[in-house]
């Protein structure tokens, strides 16, 4: 495994989404990293000495990034959409399966240190739900690649400000906030989780983890953040 002290570059795909924006903010504040490369279709509209925007066409991603971007980097993937936003199941699969897998293959080919990705609770290639089945299929293909380090986070419903938030999104967030206190015992894993907590857990896993493969379920993400917050108050 690459020595953590040698890693000063990160690559982020999905930087303009709800999760990605939170992640980039944390990475820019992280003294460990000196170069934050974001793969974007359009500018994020922010300026920072450590931030490098690389505009790409995701359909041609494998030809647009190489070792100059990925070598010894921690690669974070927060790419994702919904079928409603994508328009069709095929378009959804492209964003949530094809693009992350292409990025992972490029990361492996060009010597990235780690690949850290957000999928979804109940992700399974055997799921009857299209959304979680696609996520599960992606996970299985990522596992088969033999990446030097793979971290998969499976959060429940993500809370946060969405760029294209609809009335339905706001209503769902409100409902989950109301029922959260009732989700106890085995149901606790269904608690909604702030996107900023998931972003923080991604960064913590990059710095702290050592195993070749780690999978964090939603309740494990929440526990990790709770312990961190408790220690910070001591």
From TrEMBL:
Q: Which Pfam families match?
A: HIM1, NAD_binding_4
Domain Thioester reductase (TE), which positions?
12-65
Please name the SUPFAM superfamilies in this protein's record.
NAD(P)-binding Rossmann-fold domains (SSF51735)
The domain of life is Bacteria
Q: What is this protein called?
A: NAD-dependent epimerase/dehydratase family protein
Q: Which organism is it from?
A: Paenibacillus piri
């Amino acid at each position: 495994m690459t020595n953590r002290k040698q890693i000063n570059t990160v690559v982020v795909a999905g930087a303009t989404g709800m999760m990605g924006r939170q992640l980039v903010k944390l990475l820019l504040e992280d003294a460990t990293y000196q170069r934050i490369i974001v793969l974007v279709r359009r500018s994020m509209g922010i300026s920072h000495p450590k931030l490098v925007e690389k505009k790409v066409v995701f359909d041609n991603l494998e030809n647009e990034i190489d070792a100059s971007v990925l070598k010894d980097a921690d690669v974070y993937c927060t790419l994702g959409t919904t079928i409603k936003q994508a328009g069709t199941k095929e378009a959804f699969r492209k964003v949530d399966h094809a693009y992350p897998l292409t990025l992972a293959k490029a990361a492996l080919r060009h010597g990235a240190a780690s690949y850290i990705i957000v999928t979804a609770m109940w992700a399974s290639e055997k799921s009857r739900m299209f959304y979680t089945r696609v996520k599960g299929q992606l996970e299985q293909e990522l596992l088969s690649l033999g990446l030097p380090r793979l971290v998969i986070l499976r959060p429940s419903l993500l809370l946060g400000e969405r760029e294209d938030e609809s009335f339905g999104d706001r209503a769902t967030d409100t409902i989950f906030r109301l029922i959260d206190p009732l989700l106890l015992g085995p149901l606790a894993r269904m608690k909604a989780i702030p996107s900023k907590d998931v972003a923080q857990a991604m960064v913590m896993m990059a710095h702290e983890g050592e195993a070749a493969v780690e999978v964090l379920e939603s309740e494990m993400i929440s526990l990790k953040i709770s312990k961190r917050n408790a220690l910070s108050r001591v």
